[in-house]
Amino acid sequence: MTTTHRTAGNTPSSLRYDRRTLWQKDKDHFIHPFTDFSLFHEKGCDLIVDSDGIYVEDAHGNRFIDGIAGLWCVNVGHGRAEIGQAMAEQATRMAYFSTFNNLSNAPAAELAAKLAELAPANLNHVFFSCGGSAANDATIRLVHYYFNRLGKPSKKRILSRRNAYHGTTYLAASLTGIESNNWDFDTLDHLVTHLSEANLYRRPEGMSEADYCDHLVAELEETIVEIGAENIAAFIAEPIMGAGGVLMPPQGYHARMQTVCRANDILFIADEVVTGFGRLGHFFASEAVFDTQPDIINCAKGLSSGYAPLGATLISDEIYKVLGTPQRKGGVLSTGFTYSGHPVSCAAALKNIEIIEREAICENVREVGPYLAQKLKTLADHETVGDVRGSHFMLAIENVADKATKKLLPVEARVGDRVAAEAQKRGLIIRPVGHLNILSPPLIWDREVVDRVVAILDEAFAATTVSLKADGYL
Ligand SMILES: Cc1ncc(COP(=O)(O)O)c(C=O)c1O
């Protein structure tokens, strides 16, 4: 695969850093998202300052294979000079102008049309935001507005799922079902009901995959009866739950959930913030992988490969008919952000999509993804590895104390952190999430990289077992 990257060696002097001062400034002033302050106050942060293709480099000059694509987002890999150029050209030509009140700009118009072309057939209308949380938040407002306009104002409740991750604006955090994410925060409970997550690994003991699917669909049906379809606006789901632990649904789950939603006039929203833009081998996974036709698909992250903040809500023709009609004389669709359709972000996304198409990156994921999954399964021999799961470039390893009972290690063993630290010592960054380790690489890994990564992980899990034993956890 040919790629053009800026390399760490030709970093301009304006981008060279004094790492000690920078570390101090960061520690003194930057409130980081999702940071464990029990460690931060003492250790501060590792600064990642350079990048190149599948690699990132820290402020000490250590180079790592990026196993998490930044944060599930740098799909085309790091240091793509042509994306930088497209952004610079747009920024110098016209960095920003309003998209409110019948104004638009060229990259936003081009990108909206391109997304309509790539999305499933009836999703032809795009509402732009600045990221995944904002996309989900804006979607719920639009969905409520849609039902109000249809004369169904009682349809307000959103069905989400436990362990779902939909972001951290107030509304997106309320949709999120990872309990610890909302410890001591408030949530909008009157708007959201959480169903069970679809988690094949931890399904009830002895239940077949097919029965498990029936069980989850029955729970949806019962919940609808309980709350009343007239009070429910939408069901929102990630095709594969990401931050909740790369939880795999049983075969046919999404299609069946959608059938029940359709029968009850409940909109089906696919949160493809992670699964979109190639991670599962297609621009969108909803139809191509899960055989669903969502009313709305949300995307962000891989949409611009993280080169610029951007989110998009792809809306069906049917919903647009309602949104696209003034609610009253002089009325406008009064929602949107200063940066909806930001020209520089849209220019980045257009170039990113051009690269994904030109380099056949979805095809690479379809070819290398199954190899990655198969090689990763070899780690299951390690004493603490309970489950290796996921699909294509979205994978997780669940660590346990006991494989038979699936009992977890105590939280204070920090098993995910231990594995991640051992991997990092050996030149690979993976993501620890509690007792899990997540892999969501740039989509340009080839088989040779997979072999190197799995060899590193093999050593990292062996070293973790030794350290857990030394500390009395095993
Ligand atoms: C499925 C999903 N939805 C929404 C979000 C929130 O996106 P953002 O962090 O860009 O607001 C994320 C972020 O990880 C995500 O994984």
From TrEMBL:
Quote the InterPro entries the UniProt record gives: Aminotrans_3, Aminotrans_3_PPA_site, PyrdxlP-dep_Trfase, PyrdxlP-dep_Trfase_major, PyrdxlP-dep_Trfase_small
- Which GO MF terms are attached to this record? pyridoxal phosphate binding; transaminase activity
Q: Which cofactor does it need?
A: pyridoxal 5'-phosphate
Q: Does the keyword Transferase apply?
A: yes
The record's section on Pfam families has:
Aminotran_3
Domain of life per record: Bacteria
Ordered alphabetically, the record's keywords are: Aminotransferase, Pyridoxal phosphate, Transferase
Instruction: Enumerate the NCBIfam families for this protein.
Output: PRK07036.1
Q: Which family does it belong to?
A: Belongs to the class-III pyridoxal-phosphate-dependent aminotransferase family.
Protein name as catalogued: Aminotransferase
Its lineage reads: Bacteria, Pseudomonadati, Pseudomonadota, Gammaproteobacteria, Oceanospirillales
